[in-house]
Amino acid sequence: MKFSLRYIFILFLTIVGLHFMANAIGLYETRIIWFDNVLHAFAGAGFGLFWLQVSKKKNQDGSFDLSTVFPLAMFVLCTALVWELLEFLFLKLFTHYAHSLSIYSPSLGEASMDVVSNLA
Fold it and tell me: Which of 31, 81, 91, 94 is the right S-S partner for 104, CB 3.0 to 4.6 Å?
C-alpha cells in the first residue's frame, strides 16, 4: 500500500482536530484519558509513514526488510522525544495557553507513556 505525503498530512490534521475536539468536550478530564495515547499511537504511525515516504526505504516489491525497522523506530523515538520536550517548554513559557489548549504532559510518567504510545 502506497501512502503519499498528502495522506500523511491529512492524518496529522485529523489527529490535531481530534485532540482539540476531545479538549473541547472535556474528554481528557474524564475517565477516557487513554484517548490521548491512541492519538499518540496514530501520530507515531504518521511519523513512521512520513519517514518511509521521504527515505524511500522500500524494496522493489514494496516490502520492507529488517534493516528498515531500526532507523524507522529511531526516527519515531526522536520525533516523540522532541515533541515532548516542546510540550514541556510550551508549558514553562506559555503556561496559560498550554493549560487552555491541553498541550502539555502533567508528569514525567505521562510524557513517558506518550513516547511509548508513539513507538507502538
Answer: 91
